[in-house]
Design goal:
Elements: H1 3-20, E1 25-26, H2 28-38, H3 40-55, E2 66-83, E3 89-111, H4 115-181, H5 187-221, E4 231-232, H6 244-254, H7 256-276, E5 282-296, E6 303-316, H8 324-391, H9 396-430
Helix pairs in contact: 1-4, 2-4, 3-4, 4-5, 4-7, 4-9, 6-8, 7-8, 8-9
Length: 436
């Protein structure tokens, strides 16, 4: 049989086997959907946000009245004696005394120096902070899933490249054995081909191990059984249209870390507003309806009762507190200043990270083009080398060099795509623009 036809038949058989045994393909969209539904960090951040939302009420801010119902039933049995002014002594053993007091009371702070309004605004800002934290958690998780997923794509591409080199090395061994059988090659050529084939098999086993471990890592991130088997897509698609100025503009608006610092500044300002409210008077309205009844076995009054409405108000004003008010206001102003510094620091850090990541992104895009050209050249060189080896015009060392050059070129091209994808992910993460 013609060797070229045999080689093509082996490749066709190999790819048919791969196709028949293919697992279900997990797309990046499905991986992100599973992660967002199952991930524990996202669930915790969602619950924290739910707590913040629950706290945003006028009652929690102190704007609503408090209504309290009370019931007091007191009883006693005592040996009692009383001595009056005229010397008369009255005594009674096991004297029973009973009192019953119940009713409802209302307490309503109608003015507290506008502190309650500042408190409500602060609760709303804390809700926004929780939303920013949830967004940050989701973006980090999307970024992590993307990175691990496309690392797995790279591992899968390298696995396919090593599968190809096994086929080539097997063909080389077959040709060497045939040449030896007809006396056109030495035993050394056969042994070298066998050693190289075994080396390729060892490399393939290591790559399979790495590939399986990355699958387990992705399943862990998706919070599902690590034994779940799947395949990923065969290509890495890189967004090569990113613009630094647009990314910086997006980051200023929606980067969750910068957003959190801005919210912290607003919270500090509202805290100062509440502290300043201590300089104003506080006005409370009080009211209630009570019932009282008492019985006594000894004394001037054996039974008494009362019921009715009571109402009034209470006003208070902090006149002097040892300069604590001034001290608290100064501390609150310093905290506001710290918040401003934190915003400036985060903004500068964000722009620096974006600039650095964008330069890496541009370099990786150029490397993709260069490595793609190298792979094409290496593939052509290998094809020519196989033909020359078949007719015996080159040495086994030259054949092996061309084979390794092709495999290394494929691996470098795959790695260049992966590194460019990581740069894209980093830029979109910083810009707060990780969508799925």
């Amino acid at each position: 049989m013609n060797t070229k036809i045999l080689f093509r038949s082996v490749l066709l058989f190999f790819f048919c086997i791969v196709k028949m045994n293919a697992q279900e393909v997990l797309t990046i969209e499905n991986a992100l959907k599973i992660a967002l539904e199952n991930n524990f960090e996202i669930k915790l951040a969602s619950n924290n946000l739910a707590i913040n939302k629950t706290n945003v009420t006028v009652g929690n801010a102190g704007m609503l009245p408090k209504l309290t119902a009370t019931l007091v039933d007191a009883n006693s049995i005592q040996n009692s004696s009383q001595t009056r002014q005229d010397g008369t002594i009255t005594a009674l053993d096991n004297a029973k005394n009973n009192s019953l007091n119940y009713g409802v009371g209302l307490n309503w702070t109608v003015f507290d120096g506008f502190k309650m309004f500042a408190k409500l605004d602060q609760l709303k800002e804390l809700q926004k902070f929780g939303e920013a934290q949830l967004k940050h958690t989701i973006i980090l998780k999307i970024s992590t899933v993307n990175a691990v997923y496309f690392d797995l794509v790279q591992q899968q591409q390298q696995l396919a490249a090593l599968d190809t080199t096994i086929v080539i090395s097997t063909q080389r061994l077959t040709l060497a054995q045939n040449r030896f059988n007809i006396g056109k090659a030495s035993k050394l050529e056969v042994l070298n081909a066998q050693v190289d084939l075994n080396t390729d098999k060892v490399t393939l086993l290591r790559q399979k191990e790495s590939y399986a471990n990355r699958k387990i890592a992705l399943n862990q991130i998706l919070a599902r059984d690590p034994k779940v088997d799947f395949k990923v897509v065969d290509e890495v698609t890189v967004d090569d249209k990113l613009v630094l100025a647009e990314l910086m503009a997006l980051a200023e608006k929606q980067n969750p870390q910068l957003e959190s610092e801005i919210i912290n500044k607003r919270v500090s300002e509202l805290q100062l507003k509440q502290i300043k409210g201590e300089r104003y008077p506080t006005l409370n309205l009080t009211s209630g309806y009570n019932f009282f009844e008492s019985q006594s076995s000894l004394g001037f009054t054996s039974e008494s009762s009362a019921r009715g409405l009571n109402y009034g108000f209470r006003a208070s004003l902090n006149v002097f507190d040892g300069f604590a008010q001034n001290r608290n206001e100064k501390i609150a102003k310093i905290q506001i200043e710290n918040s401003k510094i934190a915003i400036e620091q985060q903004s500068l850090l964000l722009n620096s990270e974006l600039s650095t990541a964008f330069q890496t992104y541009l370099t990786n895009l150029e490397l993709i083009d260069l490595e793609q050209i190298n792979e094409t050249i290496a593939k052509q060189n290998l094809r020519i080398t196989v033909d020359k080896f078949r007719i015996g015009t080159i040495t086994t060392l030259e054949f092996r060099t061309a084979q390794l050059n092709y495999i290394n070129a494929k691996v470098r091209y795959s790695n260049a795509q992966f590194q460019a994808k990581l740069s894209e992910i980093a830029l979109k993460e910083l810009a707060g623009n990780m969508s799925f």
